[in-house]
Amino acid sequence: MNINITWYSHACFLIEYNGSKIITDPFITGNKLATVKPSEIDTEYIFVSHGHADHLGDTVEIAEHTGATVIANPEICNWLADKGVKNFHPMQLGGGYNFPFGRVKMVIAHHSSPLPDGSYGGNPCGFVFSLGGKNIYHACDTGLFYDMKLIGEESIDMAFLPIGDNFTMGPDDAFKAIKLIKPDEVIPIHYNTFDVIIQDPKPWVDEVNRKTDTKATLLQPGDSYTL
Ligand code: NI
Ligand code: MN
């Protein structure tokens, strides 16, 4: 069965599989690249990688109007409960869980995670989604780390990797990450949203396609892709 992926820019993806809808890091309000409004988002699950405003984003509003379950670390779940969010599934680094739509594992990301009001937001993370035999690694915000090799051992069909630099890996380290993860495919993310993460993704995509066995695809915000 196909997996349909829509990139709303930055780290925000809508993943549709077998009738289920999942959104990640829904930073829409205040995101100049976003092509949707929070009120237009329909989802059953919201995955939040860390507490920064460009990832937590519109989680509260979307959870309110959809009734979606938020999956994040316990600190973020507790903080969201105080904001009125009702449905949660807390997870911690290294843990996996079989959701009705598939399995998700919370994996390491080297970054930080304070919440917008300065509250402690626990550890940042990435996610590996296993949907009907296909594995998607969403690195979220992270620097390059050698243990990406271990994530790659899970046979990654698709990786979402930041290339923006400054706050995360830049293009050179994201290229090295591909050599560690060896995904079948990659989509570059987390660039051009802010002035300090301006990148031209085209040369990076071309270099990946020319020099590695990984197929890189350049999406524009709002584009969909079928895996
Ligand atoms: Ni961040
Ligand atoms: Mn970020």
Description:
It is a single chain. With about 230 residues, the chain is of the alpha/beta class. About 20% of the residues lie in helices and about 30% in strands. Strands 6-5-4-3-2-1-14 form a seven-stranded mixed sheet, covered by helices on one side. Strand 2 and strand 3 form a beta hairpin. Manganese (II) ion (MN) binds next to helix 1.
Would you kindly provide a brief summary of this structure?
The chain has 227 residues and is of the alpha/beta class. It contains 6 helices and 14 strands. The strands form 2 sheets. The chain has a 7-stranded mixed beta sheet, covered by helices on one side.
Cα-based radius of gyration, to the nearest Å: 16 Å
Strand order of the largest sheet: 6-5-4-3-2-1-14
**Helix percent band:** 10-25%
Q: Which structural category do the helix and sheet elements fall into?
A: alpha/beta
Oligomer: single chain
How do the SSEs run, as a string of H and E? EEEEHHEHEEEEEHEHEHEE
The ligands found in this model are: nickel (II) ion, manganese (II) ion
Helical region count? 6
- State which percent range the strand residues make up: 25-35%
Largest sheet: 7 strands, mixed
> What does the overall shape look like?
globular
Number of strands: 14
